Amino acid sequence: MDVLVYDTKKYDRETLQAANADAGAPHKLVFVESLLNERTASLADGFPAVSLFVNDDASAPVLERLAHSGVRLITLRSTGFNNVDLDAAARCGLTVMRVANYSPYAVAEFAVALLLAVNRKLHRAHNRTREGNFALDGLQGYDIHGKTVGVIGTGRIGAIFAHIMQGFGVTLLGYDLTPHPECLALGMRYVSLDALLAESDVISLHTPLLPSTYHLINAEALAKMKRGVILINTSRGALVDAEALIEALKSGHVGAVGLDVYEEEEGLFFRDRSDQIITDDVFARLMTFPNVLITGHQAFFTYEALAQIAATTIRNLSDFEAGRHNENVLVPRSA
Question: Is 130 annotated in the active site?
Answer without folding.
Answer: no
